[in-house]
Amino acid sequence: KAEDTRRLSTLVYVLAFVSVGLLFVGHKMLLEPGNDFANWAPFKIVGVISQQWPTAQVFSLLQLVAFSYVCLRLIDAIRAVGAGERLLDPVALAGFLVPFFMTPSGPINEYEKHLEMDETEPTIPSAAHFVDSVWLITCGYFLKFAVAQSLGLFVRAIGGTWPVATFWDSAVFLTYVFFEFCGYSLIALGVGKLLSVPTPVNFNHPYLATSFADFWTRWHMSLGTFVKRTFYFPVRVWLTRTLRPARQETTKVHFINALALIVPFTFVGLWHRFTWV
Q1: What is the C-alpha separation between 129 and 117, in angstroms, rounded?
Q2: Of the four listed, 126, 186, 229, 232, which is most buried by Cβ atoms within 10 Å?
Q3: Which of 152, 154, 204, 207 shows the shortest CA–CA distance to 176?
Q4: End-to-end alpha-carbon separation of the chain, Å?
């Protein structure tokens, strides 16, 4: 019975990944402007169907879910339950998948942390706890609206586009992105602390990083942790067990390392809707 349950969980896990993957690919092939794939007969037929009512509404809803943090949390829940963790009750699961303060821009909470919260008695927050939470929220609002939005208005005015023709333009834009995203993450962290809901830290002085590897351990940390536990480690372990490289077989080792990095970065690129045009 336990073996049958494990197989069923694995099947659901694989089907969920395939479904999300097809949705990502379908979005690129059918909806991106100037894409040659959309002219292929099979994709053209699907494209026509996807624009008809009510399939257009369903397709739009699926896209909204797939390209949101809800999708990433859903994948994390499937991963954890597939590995043998307990399934949360519907109300608690909804709170994990769609937390009101983390839904627009993250961060990505971890399923196991919500299991721990669900199994412990809630505590009454102290005055110091309340002050710390409000301080985080206030700092977040300051960074997001006072710093980031002021910089945006100064550079591109109202409704304008960001100039990215020079290195300086790109540096200014990345500064804006950091303050805007970090500010929102602090707001979410403060609200989570206030409500005693597990909310991960998302930034750790990323522009002080000393290497690219160090940068990706500091920038959008919850997403980095998510892709490591969901893609990087599983792919690396599976390839190592499949290929069984000896210590002197450097070609196999390099292949495993490269593919274990390519898979998560490809997923992140798809999720951010990268384009070929």
Answers
A1: 17
A2: 186
A3: 152
A4: 50
- Sorted by sequence, the CB contacts under 8 Å of residue 55 that are 6+ apart come out as 49
| Radius of gyration from C-alpha coordinates of the chain | 21
Angle, nearest 10°, between helix axes 90-97 and 69-82? 130
- Separation of CA 170 from chain center: 23
Looking at per-residue confidence, does 59 or 87 come out higher?
Answer: 87
pLDDT in tens, 22-44: 665 555 555 555 555 555 555 55
Structure tokens at 183: 């500010």
- Tens digit of each residue's pLDDT (9 = 90 or more) over 205-225: 998 999 988 998 899 999 999
Instruction: Determine the Cα–Cα distance for residues 74 and 82; give it in Å rounded to an integer.
Output: 12
